Amino acid sequence: MNAINQSGWKPEMNTAEGAAPATSTGNRALMLEEALIFEIGTTETTGVDLPETPKGASRLGSLARAKPIGLPGLSEPETVRHYTRLSRQNYAIDLGLFPLGSCTMKHNPRLNERMARLPGFADIHPLQPVDTVQGALGVINELAVWLIELTGMHGVAMSPKAGAHGELCGILCIKAALEARGEGHRKVVLVPESAHGTNPATAAFAGFTVENIPATAEGRVDTEALKARLGPDVAGVMITNPNTCGLFERDLKIISDAVHEAGGYVYCDGANFNAIVGRVRPGDLGVDAMHINLHKTFSTPHGGGGPGSGPVVLSEALAPFGPLPFTARHADGHIQLVEEETVGEDHPHSFGRMTAFHGQMGMFTRALTYILSHGADGLAQVAGDAVLNANYVLRRLEGVLDAPFAKSGHCMHEALFSDDGLPAGFSTLDIAKGLIDEGFHPMTVYFPLVVHGAMLVEPTETESKAALDQFIGALGSIAERAKAGDASLKAAPHYAPRRRLDETLAARKPVLVWKEAPLAAAAE
Amino acid sequence: MTRYFTNEHEWIDVDGDTATVGITDYAQGQLGDIVFVEVPEEGREVSKGGEAAVVESVKAASDVYAPVTGTVTEGNAALTDDPSLVNSDPENSGWFFKLTLADKGELDGLMDEAAYKDFVASL
Amino acid sequence: MRYLPLTDTDRSEMLNVIGASSIDALFADVPEEARLTGPIHGLPHHASELAVERHMSALARQNTVAGEVPFFLGCGAYRHHVPASVDHLIQRGEFLTAYTPYQPEIAQGTLQMLFEFQTQVARLLGTDVANASMYDGSTACWEAIVMARRVTRRAKAILSSGLHPHYVSVANTMAKFTGDDVHSSLPDLSAEGDIDALIAAIDDDTSCVVVQYPDILGRIADLSDLAAACQAKKALLIAVVTEPVALGAIKSPGEMGADIVVGEGQSIGVGLQFGGPYVGLFGCKEKYVRQMPGRLCGETVDAEGKRGFVLTLSTREQHIRREKATSNICTNSGLCALAFSIHMTLLGEKGLRGLAEANHLAASAAADRLARVPGVELVTPTFFNEFTLKLSKEARPIVRELADRRILAGVSLGRLYPGVEALEKGLVVAVTETATAEDVETLATALEEVLA
């Protein structure tokens, strides 16, 4: 017997009377619609109580603001509700598996957050006298030491603000080193076809010409083609290892030797360092510069698109050219901040400053906390479990979805599938949107470009086997639905806060700031 | 007036020394919904094979190359307000720019309508 | 290891499915000689939360915390009170642990927030549009210079002497590689900025003039004439705001005709954090929007006609344009932008104006008090919440000496412009709502002693 419901009432399911009604608010129980602050706030409302205004004379001269700004305010309860409601329209790692290939969406430990918020780190000014911030410089210095050890490199530039900024830093080091050698005429940077878009963008930004290097049928850089292109006009190569097909570039050392032989430098995109951390050191493979995305390998939060942090480890050949500022620990334990002032004596070849202040301190504390939490044994296990999880996904799904490089051996931390075998009318996008209805964030789609309709799955090491099994089941069932011609998949997602959005409309008539007349009305 | 085609899927209408350039119906079909077109301003010198305009869909940006060398006399301002003209009427009101020809000899290597039709069929 | 869910049983079951003998066997493609045989040199084994917290706390304790002492530092980073709800909300997992909103159907929270942020920033800066944020103010400043080059097809940038020296340094570094022609100069310890000199320097090759407002010494100047002079020569005026709270009290740069306005958003919602992460603000006139760097969020509708938001105009960006992108920028500063936006929503117009007024009047009163100290001269008669004093002695040792007395007195110009004798007596003092009258009195008394 059912102790909870003794009345004999049964819910009416699947009848006309029981069909989901439209609601007057547009809300659907826990799925709450939320208006914009410009529609619910007023310029007279505020959620803060300010300290009493002190007495003093105005010194603004003729510049005192006369016109209103147009900033709506909300009281604190309304503010908390507004942003809480918005948050519930987001998918997040905290909600479930987030298998975005190349993006490394792993669990973000909360100890990291607590450490970053210690007032000794969060409430100190970057221009305080260095004697008053020795502990903060100590964090930067300690993290720098571990990054150097983990990568087997010679030095590290800590100030780059994100991975792409780190890439720029590495490329500028290469350019500075070439110019110091009187070989500024080397203008060509070789980039494999499978590279992240930032690689060619960065090289071009720094004034280099980009040439593509093809991939082999097994999904790796064509070593022979690369070697054949080397010459006196080549500044260097940009290689991702493990690469974006999820494979280890077996020939990287051979490539590095050949590039060095030809007078160039090797830039490694460290986006996928998480697959090998604690097991392989890029320095041992002849790499000259590699950025490390702290949010990928070392679990700092992605935050809906940043902030990132992109320290760059450097070889002995490139380290002298690294940017300002950096830290130097003296024998007495005092940590010096080397800036423009002392650069002449200590670091005459530095290419200069890339950003105000000293880098992403808040990310350094988180990353150091993560490294110390895992230790040497834990980090090796991180890479091992990440690779194990990806191979498990690859082998469980290779019979359902086309896996173009499954025969190339074990994958590293991500498994790559293509749209080959999907019936006409169904695309990778449909598979991705179908996953949303199943309660998962889609994998990376249409990247890398070397595979048609690419689907790149990176489960990360922080997923349990049960979570993987559920994901594998869901992705498999969607592939089966596509093969069965299930048209409902074309209209997915059905259960998300929004259906597919009109990106063409957004791009043709860009509405980038709120205006009184909403777009929908204007379009009519 | 004579219409020529290039293997970059542009059409060019020649009338004396002046020419009008656009992209073909086949090209717009490949690009999908066009969301933005950047046309060259009046007076710009363009050379055969050089970048002259940019056409963008949501996910891709493509360069449009000048089929012949010349001086731009007019960019199609209508495309700024309504880039979808390239989708709906590519070989007429969706034209990109007009120019004054520098060297009519450059037209010799271009295709006529029949040749272009065969070219597209071969793709 | 507390962050790794797999059990040994799981691992062996999974290896069976894969057909591999061990996890090590999965690394078969790594050449033997590149495989590490032992642990990382010097790195201890995994540690408990308690042990790690003990280590990190010991490092944190070695720092002098701004909130525990009289504190007057600014120069590009400002200490303001951040309401408790800001930090609570940004730590919601759905914001903290989300990715860039590439799947808009399940990222409307982040996207709507960015749309609101863009609107708040555009209104504050006085520009038509704003992007979804940049790394920080200094990199936003450089990106603005590059954008001006794209718009004007000229490469000569004239930087005001009042621009933050780190921002100047970033521009000079980058220009070495890109070939941009950057002109900069040192500030004077004088009441006036260099607007007239900038106007005189604009020529037909000038791509842009970059001016900070309020400037590095705290001075504020009307930018209208400079904007007109730029326009006459078809150059762009780039205004840089490192203290956005100021715009609650003074005219916005956009209002005075600036074409591009960039800023450091740290002072609203973000906190000091020893210099990062911060949040770059970037706004401009609508006609330049397709030359803007960085992410943009736009309004649209979904398949059922409901309003929604997407990342848009992405053909400007690296993942599509590759070597032809407007910038190599890949990420924005999402969570800091969220903190900025929440704090700004809590303030609203009324709160921001009140906060700005409180800052200005407190700073004004502090300037009066400090100018009465023998050996102290107020250099800057008009300012917002930051002003420059000329001391009778070199300022840098004084700042160090006061730090030993647990007073963080300000930023000496000797720190920012090392070796420049004409500036070595300069001390830049920022006074926000967090400094009390007692703090100011403590600083004044201590200055009297050390300057005597």
Entry summary:
Chain C: It catalyses: N(6)-[(R)-lipoyl]-L-lysyl-[glycine-cleavage complex H protein] + glycine + H(+) = N(6)-[(R)-S(8)-aminomethyldihydrolipoyl]-L-lysyl-[glycine-cleavage complex H protein] + CO2. Chain A is α/β, with parallel strands linked by helices.
Order of secondary-structure elements of chain A: HHHHHEHEHEHEHEEHEEEHHEHEEHHH
At the first level of CATH, the class of the largest domain in chain A is Alpha Beta
Distance between the termini of chain A: 58 Å
Q: What is the H level of CATH, i.e. the homologous superfamily of the largest domain in chain A? A: Type I PLP-dependent aspartate aminotransferase-like (Major domain)
Uncertain runs of chain A: 518-524
Task: Please trace the helix and strand order of chain C, writing H or E for each element.
Answer: HHHHHEHEHEHEHEEEEEHHEEHEHEH
Rg from alpha-carbon coordinates of chain C: 25 Å
Main sheet: strands, sense, barrel of chain A: 7 strands, mixed
Largest interface: A-C, 209 and 214 residues
Across the major sheet of chain C, the strand order is 1-7-6-5-4-2-3
- How many individual β-strands of chain A? 12
Morphology call of chain C:
globular
CATH fold description of the largest domain in chain C: Aspartate Aminotransferase, domain 2
CATH architecture grouping of the largest domain in chain C: 3-Layer(aba) Sandwich
Mean pLDDT of chain A: 92
CATH superfamily membership of the largest domain in chain C: Type I PLP-dependent aspartate aminotransferase-like (Major domain)
Low-confidence stretches of chain C: none
Quickly give the CATH architecture of the largest domain in chain A: 3-Layer(aba) Sandwich
Helix content of chain A: 25-40%
